[in-house]
Amino acid sequence: MDTPSSRTLLLTGPAHEEACGLAVVEVLERDIAGPIENAVWEADEDYNCNAYICRGYQFEDNNDNVQVVKAGDVLYFHVNLVAGHHPGYANVSVVDTATNAVIGSPLRSWDNWPNHLSGPPRDDIDYNITIPASLPSTCSEAGNCVIQFYWYASGNEQTYESCHDFYVEA
Ligand SMILES: *[C@@H]1O[C@H](CO)[C@@H](O)[C@H](O)[C@H]1NC(C)=O
Ligand SMILES: *[C@@H]1O[C@H](CO)[C@@H](O)[C@H](O)[C@H]1NC(C)=O
């Protein structure tokens, strides 16, 4: 996700390295569009994160980049599709970063992603989401909730993720 800014765009930072270990971080950074699985295979004894939450990228490394939102706000997203030859499905959800649980229903979901037939303009890589009214109060504190783009390439069993930090204005 390159619009709005996402954790993964900023590349790694000390909190990510501390949580996931250098072996995993090195693989993630070598290919910013690479699947999470490639990194997790390299996990060593310093791996203490869940790379399936925001690719292991930590809020502490991205806390200058938090968007303040309110219910009903429409946010535009652009996904930089680097490797489009991995068919699968995708969704965009608010995720609780403490539990990796999806909050509510997905904001967007695609049974077939990527879908080059969806445009122009391409609905799969250029889309809007609306901030739901029903988010829990935990999302009023930065770092607790993210808008996560999740793509699972079913054929080659690869997971791609990107996370946008936000909090809901009280
Ligand atoms: C994405 O969709 C799949 C299939 O419907 C579902 O299993 C998964 O929980 C969803 N993930 C997110 C993060 O919304
Ligand atoms: C997103 O919403 C804005 C404002 O409503 C609109 O101008 C724009 O065309 C929408 N973009 C997409 C890709 O739906």
Automatic annotation (TrEMBL):
List the coiled-coil residues.
none
Q: Does the keyword Transferase apply?
A: no
Question: Could you tell me which Pfam families the record lists for this protein?
Answer: LPMO_10
Q: Which UniProt keywords apply?
A: Copper, Disulfide bond, Glycoprotein, Metal-binding
Q: Which cofactor does it need?
A: Cu(2+)
InterPro entries named in the record? Cellulose/chitin-bd_N, Starch-active_LPMO
What region holds the Chitin-binding type-4 domain?
45-166
- Kindly give the PANTHER family that the UniProt entry links to this protein: BINDING PROTEIN, PUTATIVE (AFU_ORTHOLOGUE AFUA_1G14430)-RELATED, CHITIN-BINDING TYPE-4 DOMAIN-CONTAINING PROTEIN-RELATED
What the record says about family reads: Belongs to the polysaccharide monooxygenase AA13 family.
The name this protein goes by in its record: Chitin-binding type-4 domain-containing protein
Species the sequence originates in: Aspergillus lucknowensis
Q: What is the lineage of its organism?
A: Eukaryota, Fungi, Dikarya, Ascomycota, Pezizomycotina
